[in-house]
Each structure stands twice: as structure tokens, then as C-alpha cells.
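QUALITY CONTROL LOG
STEP: pairwise intake check
CHECKER ROLE: data steward
CRITERIA: each record must contain a sequence immediately followed by its C-alpha cells, with no blank fields

ENTRY 1 OF 2
RESULT FIELD BELOW
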Amino acid sequence: MSLIELLWLTFLILSAFFVGNFLAHRLGTAGWWIGVPAGVFLWVSITVGLLKMSRLYDRLFPIRPVCRQKKCVAKDYSLLEITKQGVLFRCRCGDTYLKKGNRFGELLGDGSVRRYMIRSPFRDWRPDSPD
């Protein structure tokens, strides 16, 4: 069991206990019977909601832009190499890109990098033009 799984299980048990305890003070023993499943349901609902929000954020603000061919999205890139210059990716189309910081550039055949996209924090990718 990993640390994340252990923490998730601990919070699940704590949620069941505290909701059950809260209702037990008001309803007696029946509060435990109602509160423990309600606490489990509450924690699972919170977890599912957070996962859905994370997926929505990834869809709205992808970690990699659409390729120049407009065919590949963030999940279609494969990691080639991590270098001092940045991280090299290749899309399904065969184009190679270099990501360094918030910039994403196309790696050309001669080794030079052509500016492609730039990303601001909490914003989507936009064309990277020389200032």
C-alpha cells in the first residue's frame, strides 16, 4: 500500500467516524448506522469530485499545446529525452518539440528551435512571437 492509498483510507475511516459520531449524539445508536455509510459516501463523493475537477482543469489548460499539424493533443506526445536545454517530446505526427519553462518550441532538423507556443500561469497556450 502506498502512502497516498494509506492517507486516502485514513481519511475515509475518519470521515465515517466523525459523521457517525456526530449523528450518534443526536440520534443515538441509529446515528452510527446512518452516519458511518453517510461518512463513507461523503468522502468518496469528495474524492470523485476532486478527480473530475482535476480532469476538467487538464482539459481546459493542457500541459502541452496542440501540435503544428493540429492533429495531436497533450496525451499524444511521447517523452524522448530530458536535457539541460529542456524536455524533448515527439508528437504522433513525428514532429519534435522542446519544452523549457513555459515555452514550447519546435526542434528543427539543424538543431535550432523555432518558437511555437507560450503558456502563462492558469492560462491556455498562445502563439509565441518575438517581443
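ENTRY 2 OF 2
RESULT FIELD BELOW
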Amino acid sequence: MFKVKDGVDINDLKNMSPFTLLILADVCFFAHQHNIEVVLTSLMDSVPGRVFKGHAEGRCFDVRSSNWPPSLIEEIQCLINTKYSKIAQISKADGIPRACVYHKISDNEYHFHFGVRPNAEIDYLIIP
């Protein structure tokens, strides 16, 4: 259902938060419905300049977006952010919970960043 970019250790999935894996499964299901390949570009790997601990703690993952049409980029953001708002990571910029952020870092390409807050609990996870 997904591929990993060279250098990404697939074994990191064993140490990731179950909430993060739930979001990954949902992303893969959505992509499968729309015939889009999911390419994981970052799991728990260390990246120079990264100050946020979410990846190292197994709460975040990144997905390549270059093969996603613009309409589906908006749709997956809306779906994931709505469905997982109770466990989503909180933006330091505006305090809004977002489980999916579509963004660009420095000279890199745009990509999806998915993540959950450190204190995510099953009690907060309500799936409509």
C-alpha cells in the first residue's frame, strides 16, 4: 500500500505511536481509493536542523505529495484534520490542532506532514 524513500527505515514503523499508524492506514486507504501511490519520506529518522521531537518520538511521518492532484491535497487535509482533531498535534504558530499539514521546508519540495500530540489517548479518538 505504500513505498519508502531511499534512506527511510521501514523498521521504524514498529516503534511508532499506534495513533500515528492509524492515520497512516487512513492515508493509504484514501490514496488507494484514488489510485495514488503513497511514498513515505520520513519516519523516525534524524534530519539536520529538525527541532521538533515528533518524528524522533514516533508521532509523525511525512509523505511525498508531488504525485497528488491539488483537489485531493485539499481533500486529504480536510479528512484527516477533521477526523483526528482530538489527537492532532497542536500548531505552535496558531494553537490549532492539525493532524495533516501540507507545507514546504526551505529548498525542499512541498510534502504532507502527519502527526499526533504527545498525550494522545484513545478516549479522545472519536471517529465519525
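INTAKE CHECK: passed for both entries
DESCRIPTIVE NOTE, ENTRY 2: The first helix runs from residue 18 to 33.
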